[in-house]
């Protein structure tokens, strides 16, 4: 009986832990930092909202405060992301979505570059093979000419020597 009561108390304690874990977030919490790094600052500095340190950038402070309020209100990072993408479009994101046109736009240049590289390698191999075939033909033809010339010279020398002694 006591084991059952202890087990019941343990289950109730572990069930209550997520309620205590959803405390308030601050500017140093990992959830806030991860969320703020997802969005580009709109002041033109080219950095994410966590790293933006331009003087006079009023957008960054208000944006950080807004993200922090949404996290403390119970919004998930995906909900916050959907909210800002709906408001500003995908331009606000530091990394593109991994679906649809964004994925195509990021993959296509690398695919074209890869196909072009393979094409260049195949073209160079073809040129090298053709050059080797031409070189072999020239070598074989020149060897035949040299052999015939040598044979004629040797025959003429042999004929001269034969005439001398016979």
Question: What's the layout of helices and strands?
Answer:
Layout: H1 2-21, H2 30-36, H3 58-72, H4 77-88, H5 100-165
Helix pairs in contact: 2-3
Whole-number tally of structural domains: 2
H/E element order: HHHHH
CATH architecture descriptor text of the largest domain? Orthogonal Bundle
Overall mean pLDDT score?
79
- Any low-confidence stretches, pLDDT <50, length ≥5? 17-21
Rg calculated over all Cα atoms:
40 Å
Structural class: mainly alpha
At CATH level 3, the topology of the largest domain is Helicase, Ruva Protein, domain 3
Q: How would you sum up the global shape?
A: elongated
- CATH secondary-structure class of the largest domain: Mainly Alpha
How much beta, percentage-wise? under 5%
Look at the structure and name the CATH superfamily of the largest domain.
Cytochrome C biogenesis protein
Total E-strand runs: 0
Instruction: Summarize the main sheet.
Output: none
Q: Separation of termini?
A: 135 Å
Give the oligomeric state.
single chain
Q: Which bin fits the share of residues in helices?
A: over 70%
Helical region count?
5
């Amino acid at each position: 009986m006591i084991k059952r009561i202890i087990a019941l108390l343990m289950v109730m304690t572990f069930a209550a832990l997520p309620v205590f874990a959803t405390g308030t977030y601050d500017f140093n919490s990992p959830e806030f930092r991860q969320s703020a790094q997802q969005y580009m600052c709109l002041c033109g500095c080219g950095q994410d909202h966590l790293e933006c340190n331009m003087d006079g950038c009023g957008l960054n402070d208000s944006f950080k405060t807004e993200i922090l309020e949404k996290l403390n209100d119970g919004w998930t990072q995906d909900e916050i992301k959907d909210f800002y993408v709906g408001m500003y479009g995908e331009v606000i994101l530091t990394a593109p979505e991994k679906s649809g046109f964004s994925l195509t736009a990021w993959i296509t240049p690398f695919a074209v570059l890869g196909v072009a590289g393979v094409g260049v390698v195949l073209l160079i191999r073809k040129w090298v093979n053709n050059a080797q075939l031409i070189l072999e033909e020239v070598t074989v033809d020149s060897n035949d000419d040299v052999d015939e010339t040598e044979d004629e010279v040797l025959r003429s020398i042999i004929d001269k020597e034969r005439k001398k002694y016979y």
